[in-house]
Design goal:
The complex is a heterodimer of chains A (about 450) and B (about 270). Chain A is α/β, with parallel strands linked by helices and about 450 residues long. Helix content of chain A is about 30%, strand content about 15%. In chain A, helix 6 (about 160-175) packs parallel to helix 8. Chain B is mostly beta strands and about 270 residues long. Chain B has one domain. The chains are: A alpha/beta (about 450), B mainly beta (about 270).
Chain lengths: ~450, ~270
């Protein structure tokens, strides 16, 4: 279990202020050492853990994500902090839970008292560059605190804007001369365009190509059926499609995944060709997954694994062993920033809840967390332990408990069964304890800010 | 049929049509198709780029493609500008193709750069590359560094594919199979294009336009549809959310949009 201090709301105000003052004086262990690595973070949007060929998906071709899987460590028990774009990203860039960053749902900025990874590394000698989707609050922004922003990008249009993001990163990597280490974030939008695909397929005509697809369509997922004993508070988007339409939807989702895989290849090639790869830690992840027909769901913002679980792959030749798929340790989007700080030799900002994955990446024996938690934009909470997954939504009496050993597909809610009463009680307790440790951001009515360009 | 609006993200809960001629109709209502004959060996076409989801009828870019015959094949000159929310990307390329029916790639030189909100090129994002396709595969050179990849079968660029479609005889229907080299950078294998028959579109002043349609599927793309007029000209093509429409004024339109943005930034 990670050691986390319990802080009151009053203490939060104090530490937040201290954090903001301390940015310039944050501690750097091994300061300016020439071997400090650079970082390339590639983040995709709406990519499921199981939509990757090297993770066992037979229906998709992802040679470039596979390169990362083969070159590093892939955490197969990795969860988004909150399976919606903005909240998840706020956690990735700060190491804090969305309820702490002030980004409980889309279109909110990170609290000004919570430093992001660009601000923190920038204060510690790193050149920090951002390309692509931001969404905190604007989908794309010319000004991102702590970063030099490369131009390009449009809200919700990965099909067109991802090429600009990868091209910008490609050019930047080739143009960059050796010097201070860098943090480059390539924030790609695909396979998020599947959202528009779903909306557009309300028209019959859109399904026409389905009949002409060569070869078999992907099978339905094994957990296509679901237990109807679900919380009503969850957003559970269930199209009424035929089996064939579901399979065509899955086929289409994988084509979106292949689009982003190609862009990733362009960036990885540039990293290698420009001579940066040997001293760059590459982190690959997604903000959230996609229902993709599991539980007959599409999209995200629910806490089944299909949306909540995300790829998290870390690689660096000579520093991180290759070809490891870690199924033993729970990871979270909140772990990404502390991991980068650790490799950079920079102490994490105050109150970060994520943990550095570095000991796990380097194969060291370390006491690790025995559960991982996630939030949902509609107030839901999730606790995943080795044996169970517990989900609850606010103001809803229906809880969900899944017996992970018998039912990893989350198809049978055992919360009401007497033989699971003890497990249910334990997981309620874990959630309560975990929640009590969070330094929840104060609610700011009317704080939502959205640019005209997005409205 | 499913009709509910699903996206939980605020501001995007609306119908986002794309992908077929039916959805493209609002763009065709004012469309004035080019008249007269067309020489499929030497031509220059301009297209406006539209995004179905966000822009409704506003242009997001322009694409000029020029073809001329060359020894044993053809040369294509590409000039593309795509405008994003802030800045955008310019790409110019010269592509040398073989004289086969798919105009498969022989070699190319490409120069792309992103520009900022004021239209100024950001030099750190410039990518100049050359490449060639041989029996050994694809070879690129970026900033003096070489990279190669093995591929099997014909390799085709998206822009020269248009030229190939325009030169196919009227009765041809495929299927043609190839590897797509998207943006002259990204390998997308297992592409297949087939003719899916005649269609009729309603264009400006309610005129009926006879069209012939091709459908491309494969790795890393959504089904892409190309529509040709009776002369063989590709008038528009749609892939996912993006559509290109034949438009002699395409560059002028996008320059006007850029000028407006610069004025707003002052």
């Amino acid at each position: 279990m990670s050691a986390q201090s319990k802080l009151t709301r009053r203490q939060f105000a104090g530490t937040a202020a201290l954090g903001s003052l301390a940015w310039g004086a944050s501690q750097l262990s091994g300061a300016a050492a020439p071997t400090r690595p650079s970082f390339l973070v590639v983040i995709t949007d709406q990519l499921s853990m199981d939509a990757i060929a090297a993770h066992g998906c037979p229906d998709v071709r992802t040679p470039n994500i596979d390169r990362l899987v083969h070159a590093g460590v892939s955490f197969r028990e990795s969860y988004s902090a909150n399976p919606v774009c903005g909240p998840a990203r706020s956690s990735i860039w700060t190491g804090r839970m969305p309820s702490e960053t002030g980004v409980n749902t889309n279109d909110f900025p990170i609290l000004s008292t919570v430093p992001n990874i660009g601000q923190w590394l920038g204060e510690n000698g790193y050149e920090t560059v951002y390309a692509g989707k931001w969404h905190l609050p604007d989908t794309v922004s010319k000004l991102i605190p702590g970063f030099t922003v490369l131009p390009g990008g449009m809200g919700g249009q990965g099909h067109l804007s991802d090429a600009a993001v990868s091209s910008a990163c490609q050019g930047w990597l080739h143009a960059r001369r050796p010097g201070s280490p860098f943090l480059l974030i390539a924030s790609l939008l695909q396979p998020h365009d599947i959202c528009a695909w779903i909306s557009s397929h309300s028209r019959d005509a859109e399904w026409e190509p389905m009949a002409r697809i060569e070869g078999p369509l992907p099978e339905l997922p094994v957990n296509f059926r679901y237990d109807p004993r679900e919380p009503k508070g969850a957003i559970l988007p269930r199209p009424k499609w035929s089996e064939q339409q579901w399979r065509y939807f899955r086929w289409s989702y994988y084509r979106h995944v292949e689009m982003v895989d190609a862009e990733i290849g362009r960036i990885l090639d540039a990293l290698e060709d420009a001579g940066h790869a040997k001293n760059t830690v590459v982190v690959f992840t997604a903000d959230h997954g996609e229902g993709s027909g599991h539980h007959q769901l599409v999209l995200k913002n629910f806490l089944y694994d299909d949306a909540a679980k995300v790829p998290l792959i870390v690689s660096c030749p000579g520093r991180i062993p290759s070809g490891i798929q870690d199924t033993a340790h729970f990871a979270s989007g909140t772990d990404i920033a502390p991991t980068i700080f650790d490799y950079a030799g920079v102490k994490s900002p105050p109150n970060v809840v994520g943990r550095s994955l570095r000991p796990l990446l380097e194969g060291k024996r370390v006491e690790w967390r025995d559960f991982v938690a996630a939030e949902a934009a509609n107030g839901g909470r999730m606790i995943r332990t080795a044996n169970y997954k517990y989900i609850v939504y606010p103001n809803d009496p229906v809880e969900q408990l899944f017996d992970w050993k018998k039912d990893p597909g989350e198809t049978r809610n055992v919360a009401g069964e007497s033989s699971y009463a003890s497990a249910l009680r334990d997981h309620r307790g874990l959630l309560q304890e975990w929640t009590s440790r969070l330094i929840v951001a104060p609610a700011v009515p009317g704080k939502k800010t959205k640019s005209k360009s997005e409205s | 049929m499913y009709t509910a609006q699903l996206n939980p993200e605020r501001g995007t809960n609306r119908d986002l049509p794309y992908g077929t001629l039916e959805a493209f109709q609002p763009f065709l209502d004012p469309f004035e198709p080019p008249q007269g004959s067309f020489d499929a060996s030497t031509w220059k076409h301009s297209f406006s780029l539209y995004l179905f989801a966000q822009d409704k009828l506003g242009s997001r870019g322009c694409l000029d493609i020029e073809r001329r015959p060359a020894r044993d094949g053809s040369v294509f000159n590409i000039d593309s500008k795509i405008v994003h929310l802030f800045g955008g990307i310019d790409l110019k390329a010269e592509i040398v193709c073989r004289g086969d029916e798919l105009a498969t790639l022989r070699s190319w030189r490409a120069d792309s750069v992103l520009f900022d909100d004021d239209g100024k090129a950001v030099s750190t994002t410039r990518v100049i590359s050359t490449g060639r396709v041989s029996e050994a595969g694809i070879e690129w050179t970026h900033a003096g560094r070489k990279r190669s990849a093995r591929v099997s079968g014909p390799v085709v660029a998206p822009w020269s594919l248009l030229g190939a479609l325009q030169r196919l005889p009227a009765g041809a229907g495929g299927p043609f199979k190839f590897t797509l080299l998207d943006d002259l950078e990204m390998i997308k294998p297992a592409q297949r294009i087939i003719g899916i028959g005649p269609q009729t579109a309603k264009v400006a002043r309610g005129a009926k336009l006879a069209l012939r349609c091709w459908e491309q599927t494969g790795n890393g793309i959504l089904p892409t549809h190309y529509w040709q007029d009776s002369q063989g000209r590709v008038l528009f093509w749609i892939a996912g959310q993006r559509a290109y429409l034949y438009d002699a004024d395409a560059r002028q339109k996008i320059q006007s949009i850029e000028a407006g943005r610069k004025r707003r930034n002052k």
